[in-house]
Amino acid sequence: MKTKSIILAAGQGTRMKSNTSKVLHEIFHRPLVHYPIEAARYAGAKDVCLVVGHKAEEVMTTFGDTVQYALQTEQLGTGHAVMQAIDFIEDEGEVLVLYGDTPLITVGTIEKMLAFHRKKKNAVTVLSALVEDPTGYGRIVRDESKHFVKIVEQKDATDEEKRICEINGGMYVFEAKLLKFALSKITNNNVQKEYYLTDTIEILLDEGHNVDAIAIMNPDDILGVNSRAQLADATAIMKQRINTKHMDNGVTLIDPQNTYIDPTVSIGKDTIIEPGCILEGETTVGENCTIGFNTKIKNCSVADEVCIESSVLTDSKIGKGAHIGPFAYIRPNSSIGENVKIGDFVEIKNATIGEGTKVSHLTYIGDADVGAHVNFGCGTVVVNYDGQKKHRTTIKDNAFIGCNTNLVSPVIVEEGAYTAAGSTITNNVPQNSLGIARARQENKAEWVTKNRQN
Ligand code: UD1
Ligand code: CA
After folding, report:
1. 247-300: per-residue pLDDT in tens?
2. Would you state the pLDDT for residue 1?
3. Given 25, 361, 373, 391, the catalytic residue
4. Per-residue pLDDT at 453
5. Spatial separation of the C-alpha atoms in residues 363 and 204, rounded to whole Å
6. In this predicted structure, what is the pLDDT of residue 299?
7. Pocket test for ligand 1, best of 78, 161, 199, 201 (most atoms within 8 A of CB)
8. Ligand 2 mean position to 66 CA, how many Å?
9. Distance 146 CA to ligand 2 centre (A)
10. Average pLDDT along the chain, 454 residues, taken 10 residues at a time
């Protein structure tokens, strides 16, 4: 069965008070409309058509050719929006209709709706929900024997209809051919002078087709984002879903309210995440790690048994058993080896650090390849930039870099070599040698006594 999806995303979103398209506002670093697109795809609707209108260019630039588009230049209603995608609708198969501003729709809910639709051999299946306050939504009108009659919009409803608590969630599965037929019949003969997609349902019912609504358990699934407050509500619900999934998988979150993990992140069991952590993008964290409070990790792969304290890490790899921080900054394209110690106020950029190396405090290593079991004294600087170009430095296995060394790149410290504390190293240091590059100390005897003024 071929299932295609049409996602409505042409509306203006006035209440966001934004210069950006509503559906491009983000939850966990993905635009709102990304979520229904992904849910549709996972549920089997690989071909997706976005109906764009307000800020269409912006939306199309964001998604490029990953989806198809239909342009709705004037927003004349949900039915009109779907009509713009008429060429996308085939003569057979199903069409799943979703909204671009309902990011909490799940694959599971869509799958249930599709299964119900197929089992009941419906022409259209509506996703509905039972809510305490139905204000604003279309109501599902049923007869005495609970059979579906129609959907009536709030503005067109009688007082009696307004009391109905089964609401239209705005998501549907249609038989493709019947959707096309019904779209050709709808009019804008209603209070809002809009072409209502919901009118197709009554049309199909009148033609003698099966039509029904399936009520979802969790009304969160259809929560629409129309304002910044609803954006925060949706973010909180998604955060809770994500965090619950990790806890179910054996991850300890000390304070899930205060832990922010993108849906793209994976975490191994027995890892402990302390409060205030933010894990973003394509990040994987292994088992038995501790991610200390206020740590931010983006696009990193962190192996097992790593401990990170209050640090910021981006686009890098951290080897098994490494200890990072507190207050370290691991910048893009760094690879930290197994059992490495990166201590406080250390910055690493575009560098590899070999197994067991210690960079304990107050050090900058940029554009360098550091071997295994190297020891960095406090206050080392790799001087990688000459004002125009970056240069690379090599420090080989078992080297010992004295405190407050400057390594002026490009320079090589060979295996087992030492640099004397306070040296500014501009020439390569040969294997097992000591490089000293500082002024020799001279002591002036009794200088103080002679110069003291009483
Ligand atoms: C619609 C339903 C209502 C349902 C509600 C659920 C109709 C007539 N009514 O209400 O029964 O309870 O959704 O949220 O369908 N859009 C366009 N182009 C348009 C109009 C809308 O792309 O011309 C998009 C909007 O951007 C939005 C979605 O469709 O993502 C829903 O539009 P909205 O105006 O919020 O829905 P209502 O018509 O109020
Ligand atoms: Ca609405």
Report:
1. 999 999 999 999 999 999 999 999 999 999 999 999 999 999 999 999 999 999
2. 83
3. 361
4. 82
5. 71
6. 98
7. 78
8. 27
9. 26
10. 96 94 97 98 98 97 98 97 98 98 97 98 97 95 95 96 96 98 97 96 97 94 96 98 98 98 98 98 98 98 99 99 98 98 98 98 98 98 96 98 98 98 98 97 96 84
For ligand 1, the distance from its centroid to the CA atom of residue 170, given in whole angstroms, is 7
Closest ligand to 140 CA?
Answer: 1
pLDDT for position 86: 98
* pLDDT value at residue 217: 85
Confirm whether 361 is a catalytic residue: yes
The pLDDT of residue 290 is: 99
Ligand 1 site, CB within 6 A: 8-11, 51, 72, 75-78, 80-81, 99-101, 137-138, 151, 153, 167-170, 196-198, 224
